[in-house]
Write a structure and sequence with these properties.
Layout lengths: L14 E6 L9 E7 L2 H12 L2 H7 L6 H13 L5 H7 L11
Antiparallel strand pairs: 1-2
Length: about 100
């Protein structure tokens, strides 16, 4: 999660949640997952995403796309109590069911 710099003169304060694709994937890609005007709102989303999202996209690498990440974030926003196993079942990725869930 990125926060505004201390002492910043920005008129609009934005907190941003970003996921970076691992360097081991031979790419230097980052995706913005969520932006919020309040730190509390950003921290709530960050906590919902950080526990599940990296694990899930590590298991289902084909979901590490703009569209895939959008779907995952939407589902986690609607169902914050879901586990990685819930995501695997929801997206019908049962072939990944035994991979580190």
């Amino acid at each position: 999660m990125y926060a505004p710099l201390p002492g910043s003169n920005e008129k609009k304060i934005i907190y941003e949640i970003v996921i970076h694709r691992p360097y081991s994937d031979n790419t230097n890609t980052s995706y913005s997952l969520y932006r919020a005007a309040s730190q509390l709102e950003a921290e709530e989303k960050f906590n919902a995403f950080m526990q599940k999202l990296p694990v899930f996209v590590g298991i289902a690498k084909d979901m590490f796309t703009v569209g895939g990440l959008q779907k995952i974030c939407d589902i986690l926003s609607d169902n914050p109590s879901w586990s990685v196993a819930h995501l695997v079942a929801y997206f019908n990725l049962t072939e990944h069911a035994g991979n580190a869930i």
